[in-house]
């Protein structure tokens, strides 16, 4: 049996009832953990290295959140873990569903389990 690859979902704590990234990830065969940006470091310290980190940008502009997310992206990049930004202001999505299968891509699907 092959272990599910794990994805860390980082958000601002506002979670839509009608659209769950964790449910969508499960449908793609990924296990996921959802945490606030403030708790991301603590979560990363206790889980196996994730296949990817999904960072959901808040609907409102928040410079503090943007700075913290940038630091998280830099730390993950150093470890070779892809970071996918979702719902970033100006990305043209405007709340449209995210095609996670496409965004996660072959590089994550081919990454070995830890």
Write a concise keyword list for the protein shown above.
114 residues; alpha/beta; Rossmann fold; four-stranded parallel beta sheet; 4 strands; 35% helix
Describe this structure in words.
- There is one protein chain.
- This protein has 114 residues and is an alpha/beta fold.
- It has one domain (5-99): Rossmann fold (3-Layer(aba) Sandwich).
- The protein has helices spanning 21-27, 40-46, 63-78, 100-109, and strands spanning 5-11, 30-36, 52-56, 83-86.
- The chain has a four-stranded parallel sheet with strand order 2-1-3-4, sandwiched between helices.
- Strand 3, helix 3 (63-78) and strand 4 form a beta-alpha-beta unit.
- The model is unreliable at 89-97 (pLDDT under 50).
